[in-house]
Known about the structure:
Helices cover 33% and strands 24% of the residues.
Amino acid sequence: MTFKNLMKQEIKVDKKSFLNAVNAQKPMAITAEGEILFGEGEELPAQPYIFVGKPASLTGSALTPPTPLKKILGENYDVKDEGEHVSIYAGRAWQELLAANEPYALYLDTTADGIAEFNDKVLEDLVWYSCEFGLNYREIADHLEKAVEGTVVCVENEKPYSFNGAAYVEDIAKARDEARNFIVRTLKERLKKGTIDPDTLEEEEEEALRYFGLI
């Protein structure tokens, strides 16, 4: 997978398209590639986003003052006018990024909670059984991040270290196969080494090995 670290980059968006979208005052989304889409929820395709929502108004109203361009997407975004483009920095907007990507990403990886679930039933079932032998979401995600094509939109800072990511894969069928093969290969190695003893299995462990076709 490709990692797009928003802590270290700005997203370029066509200025005319951006201003038209803001002035329309409709729900919109900005992709990690700087494309603007209109819509929300199921209206949007599953892909990485840096913003999903309704921007503030540049002109304001009788009840609210205008919002400067710099903060038009919210306090944690910085928007700069660069002539034909606007530049968006989202490195401080991780809570907004979580909300924007949660409905669409295969998984979210947060500093506080790690990976809590896969947004795919087949992968969830694989983890359900593999966790009987200590294989968890992070280990399977580590393998997928090396083995399949996709994108992780993240905020990564080494000092102090923090990592948050929203991951997308291009081919979910391949991701399922890669995850299953990784788990089966790992369990076979443990059976061969004797760290898993087929003669002393708990009921749930036996069920898991049957699920993976190992007994």
